[in-house]
Amino acid sequence: MLWVMKKPNSPLYQSKCAFFSQFLSLNILSSCFSISFFCPYNNLLYFSRIDEENKKKSPLTLSQRLGLPDFVSPDVWRASVGELLGTAVLVFMLDNIVISTLESDVKMPNLIMSILAAITITILLLAVFPVSGGHLNPVISCSATLVGIISMSRAIIYIVAQCIGAALGALALKAVVSSSIEQTFSLGGCTLTVILPGPNGPITVGLETAQAFWLEIFCTFVFLFASVWMAYDHRQAKSLGLVTVMSIVGLVLGLLVFISTTVTGKKGYAGAGMNPARCFGAALVRGGHLWNGHWIFWVGPAIACWAFYLYTKIIPPQHFHADGYKHDFVGVIKALFGSDA
């Protein structure tokens, strides 16, 4: 090696250096190959990484998109208990507010009723949100399913729990009010018309079916568009905070109750329901004329949910960021027909 050190600029020196560098490179490559080939741990890491990438790229099955495992998930059923109890308290409180404000001698009972309803809804949403997400309303569960926040199976469990809870809340209210108040105010349920005594016999007063139907669609869509939208979009929910988002939801619902009961000005019309479970609970317990036009309080919100879902598909995707199940209705249909998309 001394003669190389003495003649660094000679051609022989340069050729020797080139040969030596190639020799080192081959040795390093062969060493790396032998390590990766004969070391089981490295092979395990490599192939597990490939498996994870393949799982991400593999299409979801129809069962996964529908969320069928949710039917046997204890966590989902525990969360549904929160929906059941929360909806029961919601119906008991709201129907109590309706009866109390209408029976009082205030000049604008609709305004007082709307304010109290907004406060009550906000408090209950904050109480139930950590348990189940704070739906308390088939409208929220249905729209969350269409958008892809929760699975269809979870939505079915929630809606059944909400309807049972609404019936329990109505039963609790019936147990504490007199029969005369129950008959006069229809347990604070969703009504289109009421029968009142007239000079020539009983008369029916209220809102026409077509008007109530369109009002139900418009109010429910505004409810989803103006408030629930913020809860679905994780960027807005994170920037505004949980308390602010839930307060906005309660405020918007209170405003819509005030508008629907004030603009129509029809005695006998209880205003837009915007919660089919609440309407169902009072109708199941009280019965009678509460079943007249009851379909409006289900079909109207359902149409509004579909309209809201179409709106989320029309707008540019960068304007709506929803984290969660991400198996929306289009994804379910594609899986049903065997599409990999």
Per-chain topology:
Blueprint: H1 2-6, H2 11-38, H3 40-57, H4 62-66, H5 74-103, H6 109-132, H7 138-147, H8 152-176, H9 179-185, E1 193-198, E2 201-206, H10 209-232, H11 234-240, H12 242-264, H13 276-286, H14 296-314, H15 329-336
Antiparallel strand pairs: 1-2
Protein name: Aquaporin TIP3-1 isoform X1
Question: Would you mind describing this structure in some detail?
Answer:
- This is Aquaporin TIP3-1 isoform X1.
- This protein is mostly helical.
- The protein has 15 helices and two strands.
- Strands 1-2 form a two-stranded antiparallel ribbon.
- Strand 1 and strand 2 form a beta hairpin.
Helix content: over 70%
State the low-pLDDT regions, or none: 1-7, 28-48
Element-level helix/strand string: HHHHHHHHHEEHHHHHH
* 3D shape: globular
Q: How many helical elements?
A: 15
Protein name: Aquaporin TIP3-1 isoform X1
Task: Provide keyphrases for this structure.
disordered N terminus; single chain; 72% helix; mainly alpha; two-stranded antiparallel ribbon; 341 residues; 2 strands; globular; 15 helices; Aquaporin TIP3-1 isoform X1
Brief synopsis:
It is built from 15 helices and two strands. With 341 residues, it is mostly helical.
